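testing teh design pipeline on a random one, pls ignore if ur not involved
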């Protein structure tokens, strides 16, 4: 049994109820409860009242949750468009130096932009057609002459590694309609429609990139003027300097990569042509472009295709291709790359590799390619930002001079002094 005063006021704390147990004692004016000592009670100061900040906190929490969910939904829906705009921005920065050079020669800006974009598009289509035709031809040839290729490969393995593989068993397994190889080929043939739709989507995205790039370059001065009209003169100067630096470094970096790609393709074409590799021009272009726009590991990834194709013909040719790829990579690192990138920008291999990994993690293969000019641009901004001081002499900061930093060697006999 509860006390009488708790029975009539079960929800009122004990300290708020007087000894007579009424729990409803009013002050003299009848405007509130009194505690045991006869002082008025403020309901807002009691433990059982709700703090004022609870309701606003609940409102802020749910408003933030709704805004976050909306932002994620919108970003997910517009992620492909944002990637297209990012690709267009870097392509615009890359071709604007060429457009500006043609503009100084009297070309209209729109016509110069279209000319450069058409040149890039035609070169890309030629490259894709050449490599695609080569791969398709080799796959068809491999399927039509699979018995001969299997026999040659098994004989090579048996002679080299001392194995005892029966070529007839491998051929029977390959030609078995219920085998894993034929089932895999049949499963891939069912995806022809999906591949066609993917190709159509890629073509549409490529045309969208070209359209955005055209407007970013052709209307570049008008766009920059509209942005600067919202800024103070001092801020306008900083923005324009940063924009010009981004154009110069990004374009110079991509042009140097393109020149190195042409050199790589030329020397690889000589080797492929001399040893009789199928489609030497297409393979040389493949190695040149992939090796320059995928840092560090691009050369070896690009070399897998020519090595496999020559291995089907002759393992000795495949070994020659592998050896030349490794040797040329060293020659390029020590002779070609320092001289070509001396006037533009050279990225450290570790920086380029890390940027490619980060870009691939964020945006996939497109991000891996865009990460290089992005890293070049950020390196340019970092080199121009802040003050620089003279470094003290220490064995921890001693950097040996490279070949391009050494003074040129004087020609002729040394000077002979009398006496």
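output:
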């Amino acid at each position: 049994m509860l006390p009488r005063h708790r029975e009539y006021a079960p929800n009122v704390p004990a300290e708020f109820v007087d000894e007579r147990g009424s729990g409803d004692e009013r002050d003299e004016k009848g405007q509130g409860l009194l505690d045991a000592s006869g002082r008025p009670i403020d309901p807002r100061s009691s433990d059982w009242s709700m703090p004022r900040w609870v309701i606003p906190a609940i409102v802020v929490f749910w408003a933030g949750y709704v805004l976050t969910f909306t932002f994620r939904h919108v970003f997910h829906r517009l992620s492909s468009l944002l990637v297209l705009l990012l690709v267009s921005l870097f392509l615009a920065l890359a071709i604007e130096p060429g457009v500006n050079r043609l503009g100084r020669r009297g070309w209209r800006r729109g016509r110069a932009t279209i000319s450069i974009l058409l040149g890039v598009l035609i070169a890309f289509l030629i490259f894709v057609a050449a490599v695609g035709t080569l791969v398709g031809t080799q796959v068809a040839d491999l399927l039509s002459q699979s018995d001969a290729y299997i026999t040659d490969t098994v004989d090579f393995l048996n002679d080299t590694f001392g194995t005892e593989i029966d070529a007839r068993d491998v051929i029977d397994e390959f030609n078995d309609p219920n085998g894993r190889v034929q089932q895999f080929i049949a499963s891939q043939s069912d995806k022809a429609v999906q591949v066609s739709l993917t190709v159509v989507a890629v073509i549409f995205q490529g045309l969208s990139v070209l359209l955005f790039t055209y407007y970013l370059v052709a209307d570049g001065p008008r766009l920059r003027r509209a942005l600067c009209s919202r800024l103070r003169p001092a801020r306008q100067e900083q923005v324009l300097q940063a924009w010009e630096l981004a154009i110069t470094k990004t374009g110079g970096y991509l042009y140097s990569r393109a020149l190195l790609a042409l050199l790589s393709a030329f020397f690889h074409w000589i080797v492929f042509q001399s040893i009789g590799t199928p489609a030497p021009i297409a393979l040389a272009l493949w190695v040149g472009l992939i090796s320059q726009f995928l840092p560090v590991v691009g050369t070896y990834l690009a070399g897998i295709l020519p090595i496999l194709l020559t291995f089907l013909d002759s393992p000795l040719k495949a070994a020659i291709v592998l050896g030349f790829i490794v040797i040329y990579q060293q020659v390029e690192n020590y002779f070609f790359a320092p001289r070509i990138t001396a006037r533009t920008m050279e990225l450290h291999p570790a920086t380029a590799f890390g940027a490619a990994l980060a870009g691939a993690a964020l945006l996939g293969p497109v991000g891996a390619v865009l990460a290089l000019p992005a890293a070049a641009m950020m390196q340019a901004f970092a080199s121009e930002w802040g003050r620089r001081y003279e470094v003290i002499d220490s064995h921890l900061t001693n950097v040996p001079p490279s070949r391009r930093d050494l003074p040129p060697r004087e020609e002729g006999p040394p000077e002979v002094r009398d006496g």
